[in-house]
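Quick illustration, no need to memorize.
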Amino acid sequence: MMTEIKRVLVVGSNGRIGQKVTSKLADKGYQVLAGSRHTDNLDQGNITYVYVDLLEGIDKLVKNMQAVDAILFVAGSGGKDLMKIDLDGAVKTMEAAEIAHVKRFVMLSSIYSLDREKIEVSSLRDYMTAKFYADNWLMKNTQLEYTILQPGALVDEPGTGKVTLNDGQAGSNSLENVADVLVSVIAHDDTIGKVITMHDGDTDIKDVL
């Protein structure tokens, strides 16, 4: 049985992936709360902009999660504040979600974020370490109905609408394809409790899940 998701909070809606996810969710008829520190955008259609600052306390996060059915966490510091945003900001969002009784939580992560050996030799070791602990917290320290999506390198190229999932390879990913998979995950209960790796591939996104 599918859980009906109507109202989605996108944390990190002003980022490269966040902007695409927000518009795609709205196009599919979801009521979208676009959460970021930049709320000078004008509300449009079924998109409402809300102020979300991951450096602030949990109580303020909870206020923006009322009547939310799902949270999509796509925020990141761009390497500027990994501990406070990519790690603790993610954990605070999870804790706030549980206080607000939001069950569904989709995390945008990174390929090999749960593989310590690969993290040790990664050129993005600090970022990957932050993701390692955030992802583990989500899986082991919450009761959230999570999905963790782990794409490889993100590239600003046109989306193909075709991907490969769970082959363990760190291929490149168009931003468009990642956004489309994230939106698809929201609609599929059978992705709950799963860690999904992805890269641009050969299977239509509408069929791959």
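The CA atoms of residues 151 and 198 lie 5 Å apart.
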